[in-house]
User: Fold YgiQ family radical SAM protein from Ruminococcus hominis.
Amino acid sequence: MFLPISKEDMKRRGWKQVDFVYVIGDAYVDHPSFGHAIISRILESRGYKVGIISQPDWKDKNSVTIFGEPRLGFLVSAGNMDSMVNHYSVSKKRRPSDAYTPGGVMGKRPDYAAVVYGNLIRQTYKNTPIILGGIEASLRRLAHYDYWSDKVKRSVLLDSGADMISYGMGERSIVEIADALNAGIEIQDLTYLDGTVVKVKDLDSIYDAEILPSFEEIKESKETYARSFYKQYCNTDPFSGKRLVEPYNEHLYVVQNPPAKPLTQMEMDDVYALPYMRTFHPSYKKDGGIPAAKEIQFSLISNRGCFGGCSFCALTFHQGRIIQTRSKESLVQEAKLCIQEPEFKGYIHDVGGPTANFRQPACKKQLKYGACTNKQCLFPEPCKNLVADHKEYIDILRTLRSLPKVKKVFIRSGIRFDYLLADKDPTFLKELCEYHVSGQLKVAPEHVSDAVLQKMGKPKNSVYETFTKKFYKMNEQLEKKQYLVPYLMSSHPGSTLKEAVELAEYCRDLGYMPEQVQDFYPTPSTISTCMYYTGLDPRTMEAVYVPKNPHEKAMQRALIQYRNPANYNLVKEALVKAGRTDLIGFDEQCLIRPRQFAKEKQDAAPKRKGTNVQKKKAGTRVNSKNRVDTKNNRVRSGKRNKTEKRR
Assistant:
């Protein structure tokens, strides 16, 4: 049974009042891939009554009053994504659709949803506790650079009018908060719970805390901002993290308590065994359902956390670096539930998490001492204490693909190839290629320039090259024709036009033009975003080149997709500015031809129909005739005419 979404639902259950009203920016999907489903079901399992208000009309304060005043408080989440990332592309253009809304309709939640919802509630309920949660609140829990306004903003706790933030995954802290409120403790007195952020008027009740620079100080100095950010970054571990205090004035302080301890495997299993309906609320059927729910319907979350340490990823701030896993039995049980669903066609779409092939903490020390504060597990090279072992993951995958009615088990959530290489046993690579790839394996080298990769927190390009050789060699042994599809990123801090040209040459040598290129997106609370705003690497305080000019960013992006005729002018300009006019000409190493000849070629080209045509609007080149050059271990296009070869 779904949780109540109206007063009528509440009355049918025989409830006179709910304990908590959960206000969310997403549609109500009762599936463990959605944070609101996990938190509400955990509270339900502890005996609390929870009502759901999904995507209220933020222009009408009555939209948050449908259950009346809750007995204990309001829970508020912007949804599974930061609302600004959900709404805008990196170029700050409005996205056309929202995968977390019925029918994919855009505009059902406000910008800065956590702040807007919090204030909406506070207008009516002056004294009722408000607890923020979800990724938007987690990543904005202290002062942060906001890309969309190009400003340093205060903690979301202050701007929202809320009383507390439950940051991270929240299972432990939300139960502690609920039990304390239920026991009659005032929320203003709950200043000590792990995994929470609170505001206080003085520091009399705060002990053993480190004082960060004040909000005014970090606003005035980018260097101070970078130092403060890195102090926060080094205190995201539940075992070694310290209590942090961010002053705003003499009578207002924001206090971040240490992160909550990771869940044990038994606790993880219990979370995923709760009675989810595993789909969206039936009231959305008339609108065509929820697009995001279809993506995860037959996928299994096997872990959380990531010790990969990519600079542009916010997982360190949200899920932490210590891996938490579910047991094989728990995953098999959920797979059996998937098999029973009428729409199941025999394919489990994914078995993974932030990184699919992480199934244990990086080393044996982490569960006792925590993750190291001053070094990464995989970067710049794998730590000598790293335990790289895929045996358990292999066993889980073998069991899942042996289940009745299961035709194929895919892995789509991302393979960390440097970790795969650190495992000297080739069994996982063999079984990955043999059973879990559907023709193409998506991997994320992100770039080829070691200078940029260093800023990204990614391994050197030689590591990716080693992986590609092993991948193609394994497929050759298995007599399979399967390809790597690399994710590439343009305009990351540290990338000048020189490095962008280097990446374009790499694509040329592969005979590959990516259909999708991610321009670096400065989301809250990442090392890369700190570099973007300050021009400093917070780990070393060294200056970093940051491509901020929209035109330069467009040139860097166009270079990667240099074959697209629509990008010709940008590519030419970039090559001239980079001093690489040697790449304009007729030699096979050239990226583009001189304009006159390029135009003649374009005019003379026959117009074709079908899927193999250049799509100017999308800026992509679809090529279905790719083949593997096993001698050089690279993908190259199948048929090219003489003119194309000269390019």
